[in-house]
Amino acid sequence: MIKKTILPILLATVWISISEFVRNEFFLKSYWTDHYESMGLIFPSEPINGAVWGIWSLCFAIGIYIISQKFSLLQTTLLSWFVGFVLMWLVTGNMNVLPFGILPFAIPLSILEAFGAAFIIMKIANR
């Protein structure tokens, strides 16, 4: 059970967390901070925000694990990406807190993130 369930989920969580951190701290941070500043807000970057993103990464990995039980790698990637990112972007866009200028970068990087997590899960769980 540990090798086929917990280990793939934990490793995918690590991949997702690193991917999110690198994308949003190194590549897109100025987009986020400038956009929030233009709204008179401060971009949330307190440790509690990082902890919530860690929980989100774990939940995303669990969702990918569940989806991978019924679908191929490509199907798992696309369905997971849709559920994890497209729905989140619809909400943040609707609340006007999404800097739309990030999407040309965020879309391919988030697809890569979903693919990497699905690949890790499927490889380690032998699917």
Structure description:
By secondary structure, this protein is mainly α. The chain has one domain. It is 80% helix and 0% strand. Helix 1 packs across helix 3 (47-68), helix 1 runs antiparallel to helix 5 and helix 4 (73-94) packs antiparallel against helix 5.
Helicity level: over 70%
* Number of E strands: 0
Total individual domains: 1
What is the count of helical runs? Answer: 5
In what range is the share of β-strand residues? under 5%
Q: What is the quaternary state of this protein? A: single chain
Tell me the overall shape. elongated
Question: In this structure, how is the largest beta sheet organized?
Answer: none
User: What Rg is obtained from the alpha carbons, in whole angstroms?
Assistant: 15 Å
Mean pLDDT: 95
End-to-end separation in angstroms reads 14 Å
Sheet/helix structural class: mainly alpha
Q: What's this entry about, in short?
A:
The chain is mainly α. Helices cover 80% and strands 0% of the residues. The protein has one domain (2-124).
Detail the topology: elements first, then pairings.
Layout: H1 2-27, H2 29-38, H3 47-68, H4 73-94, H5 103-124
Helix pairs in contact: 1-3, 1-5, 3-4, 3-5, 4-5
